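TL;DR need structure tokens for one chain.
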Amino acid sequence: MGIDQEDDQEPAELGVEMVPVALAGLRAELGEARDLARQLAGLTPEQADSSWCDQLEDEYHDVDVSQATMARQLARWRLDHPDAPGLDELADLVAEVEPVRQELLRQLARLRFARGTSGVHVLPAAREDA
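>> reply
TL;DR here they are.
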């Protein structure tokens, strides 16, 4: 879904021929997010790497913007090409993004809370001194 945009401008509209690419990309991203959530669920706070958790948290906070961009693109495709194949499946996948993202963020919060760093990124210098 990584559509480039400058400042607050909307990206140029993608042609409906991009639906299969969007489907494949979103399926892969959702699979990766689900795997990460399962992996995090199996970790104890002692096993979790703080910098990796920080990176994941930043990444999955940003997914919200990408998901909104994809939802707007999907709405355009539905208006311009209502019978295009794959749009219903893409809509289903777009709807699955937020619950998966929230589960991943919940797991990260659980690890942070148990470690006593709830909502606080650990600075690299602080980790080296510890």
